[in-house]
Design a protein that fits this description.
With about 650 residues, this protein is of the alpha/beta class. Helix 11 (about 285-300) crosses helix 12 and helix 14 (about 365-375) packs across helix 16 (about 400-410). Bound molecules: 5'-O-[(S)-ethoxy(hydroxy)phosphoryl]adenosine. It catalyses: acetate + ATP + CoA = acetyl-CoA + AMP + diphosphate.
């Protein structure tokens, strides 16, 4: 569960209600509760028909589709027989409509350099880079790994892959060489696109060097394209390595988008599940594209004059859907920022909002908690009056953090959209529509049109929830597993190379429905509240981590016999990683503790580094041999810091006392 007990208590008792401001609602596409309900009910009555109509309106079709949905649980095919292209929908469609001179990307680098690309310019760059890919032999269906800083070139690389039907796999630039190699090998990537280095808090992170290490173990990768971002000296393998700017100099600007089947894979994105091996979540072309475009327009109430800023990195799904594919399909002006929120100072974000007149700002609760800690004087130094709408994603937001966001950043005039979704869902599933739905701090409010959620107690056993669900239903559901009962266009199409795991993880424990992996409840107004995970997935600063993945990394160290990782509540990160370790022959010491932290960094990446490591002579287990995670969680939560002593503790005594409970 990702919230501390304190937060759970507060979301259970939250009753404040914030109706859409009248002026805001008047200008919204969906500006009344009735309009939302009408749309939701119409969608639920005929899902394929509802989405088909939107698909015809919103996407460019080289060939029209003949069937809206072919559903062979758990495999969906949307818009069967049609041919489209996500890069066309994001670029050419706007040029065709005479909107090529509008701003597509406003970019700010961490050192302060800025660039603005119009749709026409972005189109030109994407065409050229698509020709670069072709020139190095990349073909439709090939997988291309991307390990880059948040520069326009990252979006260009993604869109160029989409243009020729290559499948991108973006790897967050904080992952280790081991993690990159695993992903290259699982996807059998033919190419890696990277940069010499990335700016992070004024320092250059050596991305190319990490990729070099990964490529020693990535036999399928034939080429590596390197963007010169920082001007760092890099190791070079002639024949394999190529500078971005060298290749682009020669490339032709003429590259028509390839007409692709609706179900042609668009990207793979690896995410943590409850096993040691990250899952390659597969998304395809037409359904995903439609879903992110419509959800972008609905949730962010998109208007032509908006400057939209989603602070997520393209290494995560939020960056895919709401930095690149959603807003660009909608023709929005997207702000992209390369660096840290506290560089050179803790007011960087407010400076950016003021400088570029950002009107819609979408960030994560972990960032908001950091802003709160840094103090409200900083945002108050800046003119934030351009803002009209705020959003959050990635984890539940504590009602008090919501109130701070509302008051200090939103000046009490901006609605807040708390958006619940997942890598697997492709786009936002639940959120207030800001012109139509009164918000409650800490609740993701209501399902979007075309999304039919149901909370069940466990297995197929239904909690009292009306099977003929209608928008505006007010049946209270006390709490249980959150499931989605009907396919939706943005849903994952599987786990790369592992159909069985896809079925098992998402479709067996709650037969006939998509099991999201979150607990939720629905209140007497029909509002949904996400109550944390049902599995051993941690949510650390809004990032998903698997406890087993961390444990596997630890036991791969020669000193470690056994390891158990659990989450413990953390004020800033939401959850911190606490691990309990038994040793083989080594004695516990602070040096070893540091070495193990470093080991996890090299195995997975800095984001997985344990915050606490405790040595024990045995792990508490039940009689049947299961590690007593609940007990360990309690122990981890009990003490804020481990202290300097490196004693070997013994939790088996506690285990004996508690063994009946587990
Ligand atoms: C959690 C991020 C509460 C949830 C888009 C989910 C949330 C997981 C919210 C997916 C929210 C995301 N309220 N919890 N608004 N948004 N989560 O795949 O546990 O990185 O299952 O996708 O984050 O994380 P992922």
């Amino acid at each position: 569960m990702s919230q501390s007990h304190g937060q759970l208590d507060s979301v259970m008792h939250e009753s404040r209600l914030f109706p859409p401001p009248a002026e805001f609602a008047t200008k919204s596409q969906i500006g009344t509760l009735e309009q939302y309900q009408e749309l939701w009910n119409r969608a639920a009555a005929d899902l394929p028909g509802f989405w088909a109509e939107l698909a015809r309106e919103e996407l460019h079709w080289f060939e029209p589709f003949t069937e809206a949905l072919r559903w062979n649980e758990p495999v969906a095919e949307w818009f069967v027989g049609g041919k489209t292209n996500a890069s066309y929908n994001c670029l050419d469609a706007h040029l065709d409509a005479g909107r090529g001179e509008r701003t597509a990307i406003i970019w700010e680098g961490e050192p302060g350099d800025t660039r603005t690309l119009t749709y026409a310019e972005l189109h030109r760059q994407v065409c050229k880079f698509a020709n670069v890919l072709k020139g190095l032999g990349v073909q439709q269906g090939d997988r291309v790994s991307i390990y880059m800083p948040m520069t326009p070139e990252l979006a260009i690389a993604m869109l160029a892959c989409a243009r020729i039907g290559a499948v991108h796999s973006v790897i967050f630039a904080g992952f280790s060489a081991e993690a990159i190699a695993d992903r290259n090998n699982d996807a059998e990537a033919v190419m890696v696109i990277t940069a010499d280095a990335a700016w992070r808090r004024g320092r250059a992170l050596p991305l190319k060097q990490t990729v070099d290490d990964a490529l020693k173990k990535s036999p399928t990768v034939k080429h590596c394209i390197v963007l010169d971002r920082v001007n760092e000296a890099v190791h070079w393998e002639p024949g394999r390595d190529h500078w971005w700017h060298d290749l682009m100099r020669e490339a032709s600007e003429d590259c028509p988008a390839t007409p692709l089947d609706s179900e042609a894979p668009l990207f793979i994105l690896y995410t943590s599940g409850s096993t040691g091996k990250p899952k390659g979540i597969k998304h395809t072309t037409a359904g995903y594209n439609l879903f992110v475009k419509k959800t972008f327009q609905w949730v962010f109430d998109h208007r032509d004059e908006d400057v939209f800023w989603c602070t997520a990195d393209c290494g995560w799904v939020t960056g895919h859907s709401y930095v690149v594919y959603g807003p660009l399909s909608a023709g929005a002006a997207v702000l992209m920022y390369e660096g840290a929120p506290n560089h050179p100072a803790q007011n960087r974000f407010w400076e950016i909002i003021e400088r570029h007149k950002v009107s819609v700002f979408y960030t994560a609760p972990t960032a908001i908690r950091a802003f709160i800690k840094w103090g409200e004087d900083l945002p108050k130094m800046h003119d934030l009056s351009s803002l009209r709408l705020l959003g959050t994603v990635g984890e539940g937001i504590n009602p008090e953090a919501w109130m701070w966001y509302h008051r200090v950043i939103g000046g009490e005039r901006c609605p807040i959209v708390d958006t619940w979704w997942q890598t697997e869902t492709g786009g936002i599933m639940m959120s207030p529509l800001p012109g139509a739905i009164a918000t409650k701090p800490g609740s993701c409010c209501v399902p979007l049109p075309g999304v039919v959620p149901k909370i069940i107690s466990s297995g197929a056993d239904l909690v009292a929830d009306d099977p003929k669900q209608q928008a505006g239903d007010k049946t209270e559901v006390p709490g249980g597993w959150l499931t989605i009962t009907q396919p939706w266009p943005g849903m994952l199409r599987g786990i790369w190379g592992d159909d069985e795991r896809y079925r098992e993880v998402y479709w067996t424990k709650a037969p006939g429905r998509y099991l999201a992996g979150d607990n939720a409840r629905r209140d007497a107004d029909g509002y949904y509240w996400i109550m944390g995970r049902i599995d051993d997935v941690l949510n650390v600063s809004g990032h998903r981590l698997s406890t087993i993945e961390i444990e596997s990394a630890l036991v791969s160290h020669p000193a470690v016999a056994e390891a158990a990782a659990v989450g413990r509540p953390d004020e800033l990160k939401g959850e911190a990683v606490a691990v309990f370790v038994t040793l083989r022959n080594s004695a516990p010491s602070d040096e070893l503790r540091q070495e193990l932290k470093q080991h996890v960094r090299t195995q997975i990446g800095a984001l997985a580094q344990p915050d606490d490591i405790r040595f024990t002579n045995s792990l508490p287990k039940t009689r049947s041999g299961k590690i007593m995670r609940r007990l360990l969680k309690d122990i981890a939560a009990g003490k804020e810091s481990v202290g300097d002593t490196s004693t070997l503790e013994d939790y088996t005594v506690l285990a004996t006392l508690r063994s009946d409970e587990e």
